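User: Here's a chain of 185 residues. Predict its fold as C-alpha cells.
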Amino acid sequence: MTSLYFLGKTILTLCLYILILRLWMQTARVNFYNPFTQFIVKITQPIISPLRKVIPSIKRMDTATWVLLYFVAVMKIVFIYYYGMMNKPIWSYEYLLYAIAAIVHAFGYLLFWLLLFRAISSWVSRGQSGADELLAQLTEPLISPIRRIVPPIGMIDISFMIFVFILMFLNMFAIDIVGYLWLIL
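Assistant: Prediction complete.
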C-alpha cells in the first residue's frame, strides 16, 4: 500500500507542478516557441481546452487553468488524508483551505528546483540551450531585485543563495502557520 500511496502522491504533485508552470509561463510571457514551453502547453491542452469552453477567462486570467489547479490540489489533499494514514479526520471545508496551502507549497518547491537547475546549468552550459532561456525567463524577475541590492562578488552571484534562504524561511513560516491552524481547527 505504501508504493501506491507514493505513486498517487507523486502523480498528483507532478500535475500540480505542470499546471503551476503553465500559469507561470503565461504570466511571465515566456518564449512560446521554446520546446519546453511547447511540451507544457501540449501536455495540458487536452484537459484545459474543454474546460475553457465551460469556464471563460476573466480579462487576462486563465480561470480554467486556475480551477483545474485548485481541483488537483483538493484531490491531492483528499488522497493524502484518506491513504496517508492520518489519524485526525478533517472536515470538507478544511480540504478547501489546505488545497490553497498545497498550491503555495508546490509553487515554493517548484521555484526551489528551478533555481537549483538554473544555478547548475549556469556552471555547465552558459545559457546556450532552450532550457536555460526558459529558466532565466521564469526566475530572473524574482532574482533581479536581490541582485540590485547585493551585486555579484567577483565572479560569484550570491543572489540565488539569498533568494533560496528567503524561500526556505517562508516555507518554514508557512509550516508553522498551518500547524497553528491545525491546532485551532
